[in-house]
Amino acid sequence: MSQDSAPVIRLADYRPTPYAIDKVDLEFDLTPERTLVAATLVLSPRAGTAGEPLVLNGDELTLVRIAVDGRELREDEYEASADRLTVKAPPAGSFRLEMTTRLDPAANTKLMGLYRSSGTWCTQCEAEGFRRITYYYDRPDVLSVFTVKIVAPKIEAPILLSNGNPVSSGDLGDGRHFAVWHDPWPKPSYLFALVAGDLDALEDEFTTMGGRKVKLAIYVEKGNAPKAVYAMDSLKRSMKWDEEVFGREYDLDVFNVVAVSDFNMGAMENKGLNVFNDKYVLADPEIATDADYAGIEAVIAHEYFHNWTGDRITCRDWFQLCLKEGLTVFRDQEFSSDMRSRAVKRISDARLLRSQQFPEDGGPLAHPVRPEQYKEINNFYTATVYEKGAEVIRMLKTLIGDDAFARGMDLYFTRHDGEAATIEQFIACFAEASGRDLEPFMVWYREAGTPTVTIDESWDEAARRYTLTLTQETPATPGQQTKKPRVIPVRFGLVGPDGKDMRPSGIAGAEVNGDTLILTAPSHTVTFEGLPSRPVPSLFRRFSAPVKVRQSLSSADLIFLLANDADSFNRWQAGTTLAMTALVKATQQVRAGQAPSFETAPIDALGKLLDDPALDAAFKALLIAVPSENDVAREVAENVDPDAVATAHLAYRRTIAGRLEARLRAIVEADNAAADQPYVPDAAGSGRRSLANTALDLLSITGSAEAMALVRRRFETAINMTDRMAALTILVHRGDAGAEAALAAFFERFGNVPLVVDKWLSAQASAPLPGTLDKVMTLTQHPAFSFGNPNRVRALVGAFATSNPTQFGRADGKGFGFVADIISRLDAANPQLAARLLVTFRSWRSYEPKRRAQAETALRSIQGKPQLSRDVADILERTLA
Ligand code: ARG
Ligand code: ZN
């Protein structure tokens, strides 16, 4: 097939461009019928390249004019195709290239480049969207200073925005007006943005630590400004936090955020003009859940933090994507930890990593945090680059300590400001700041795969010596058969019988750095001397490394850690390990035709924790949250039968609900009693709701009339979306007799709020019921659904594929077939969206043989389609390899 011939881009082939772009002037003439873009570039040859052909990127472009130094080029002097422009013999010195391209933003369904969203003109240029606007060196290492003039009809687009600071604006007298923006900070093309539309603004201001007054504005569709209040508050807290924690100050007179309803990703950090998926801006208690609020806070922070880690210092090439993304995720995680509960945030992040990144790292799409080759860069905006990339930074901090880490960051900011940098340059700053050789640490960037650390222990009573053997192994991943040992920080405690950490008189066998062992070899035997009794080991506290741990602690030890560990993360981990062990065993029993059975001691231990007034509600909610069916399937790893997992999972939840019933009921009732308290989306309020809704979910599993009455009551009396949505989801997922009426009432009330329609779609798509697939197919015809809107597609089809293991994984293959058909159908219009959906098949080889064959048939059906996009062809090729 022709797609297989997409060229491989390799890190090893990196070369600078022959020309630099010193200055860019863009003029956009926007009308609903057509858009003209006049670009004027001042180019100059880099040393020794004068006179070389100038070859610029394009993508689906139409050139209408080209001139060099004011003279229009003859046809034999250049070649212009949709995806490339060549000026055969440019002048020897610096020269001025003028190009005019004609675009059709209304027909741009790929949502890359300049497109229209609900009547607003907007752009998305990362990674390679700028080349859909004009011919350019569309790569991150070509930095230039941009001046942008926008001309547009006044009625349709009273608001005209671009990067940098506003320079001038005025009326053109013929119903059109214009605005000029200038961005003094040199930037690569992927950070370019333009927005033109009839939008409302929520305005505010922020004074930086250096005394600069910055005008802040969040632009939204008409009438939505009140829903941007939380985003604005998050923005101001982010600006302050980056000054206090990283010493980073904002550097323009304005900072604008625009929320659009059609967006392929979460948001984009364009210099001074962040463009967001409206999902990460719009909130009020009526329409947004606690999770939505937390998401807004995190994404607003993330994009703002990119101003330094991404914009002021960018990436030399796309292989270095984690240089800005891993680091910026690390920064937003730290911010959220400071705003909320650090322990709860750490647990949520570890859960996310395990559910999203571990399966990626252990499957056909595995790639290093810093990949060395790609066919389509959009397919590398992954959990590995983002979330594992953040964990690598966190390990670096653990390894060299907080002070050296802070000095390394400062050095990075001063040394590379204004540059397009590499991971090697970044790491060199920390090597210098700490005096540590970080070459061995680079394995985390260069090699894919999740290491497993196997732990063996022994206790020598006579010698009072405790010994741990820690052995690491990383499985082979595509293209990387053998793996080097990694530097693994193991934050540890040795817990004594009184629940306190014991202090050994000596430790040998590995480097020790405070409470952290540093593993560097394939295996370490570490001895701890002078202990009064055998300790219970608490390893990888705070999830100190993104690894899998194989350790056979007894139930008694795990229950002891659950009750006593000084480290909250490991208390939760002990509970999760107990639950997971029970769930895997129960799944095996089901597959062997036996009834699943469960130990009661771990459940009673959870009950005790629920009674502990010292523990906060959010933490308790995490303690009783049962690992998901997908989590269990991942642990089972091969020959997975999702029905067997579901049967075991249900039996386990019934057992918990039965044993803890009185306590769970008391939690729900206490929360009902607090129902009149005003809604505040902070850590305390969301913790209380999360505990109550988790308890209600467990209670409902018994199906008792009493429990379901509690759920219905919550649905009817809820005064916020968190509780209403939790109750609706339970009714729908249990197939309750009141579910249809509840869905209808919900739609009646919120059917005109697209972001809430998404919740309504997802609740139905994730219902573990035999009728779900038919329902989902019917919903694709619903007037509130549209294949053109990525949020709608993800809410319905994405939720079905990712959150409904038994129905996506139906034994008859119809779930796979349905999703495959949608991918084929979407690919031409929006390849990025189609490719994202396709990733839901990545673990197809883990199924039992029958489902594996069904999944393969579905994948091959996509492969058989003509004209696959590079995005889908690349994922497909790797998934089937
Ligand atoms: N840089 C954006 C972020 O903040 C993501 C943009 C990704 N866009 C894309 N088309 N791949 O994470
Ligand atoms: Zn980012």
**SS field, number of helical segments:** 26
Average of pLDDT: 98
- Main CATH class of the domain at 1-198: Mainly Beta
Uncertain stretches: none
Distance between the termini: 15 Å
| Number of β-strand runs | 33
Largest sheet report: 8 strands, mixed
Could you please say which CATH topology of the domain at 1-198 applies here? Immunoglobulin-like
Record the strand order, biggest sheet: 6-5-9-3-2-12-15-14
In terms of DSSP E residues, the strand content is 15-25%
Enumerate the distinct ligands: arginine, zinc ion
CATH architecture of the domain at 1-198: Sandwich
CATH superfamily of the domain at 1-198: tricorn interacting facor f3 domain
| Radius of gyration (Å) | 28 Å
Helix content: 40-55%
**C-alpha geometry:** globular
Class derived from helix and strand content: alpha+beta
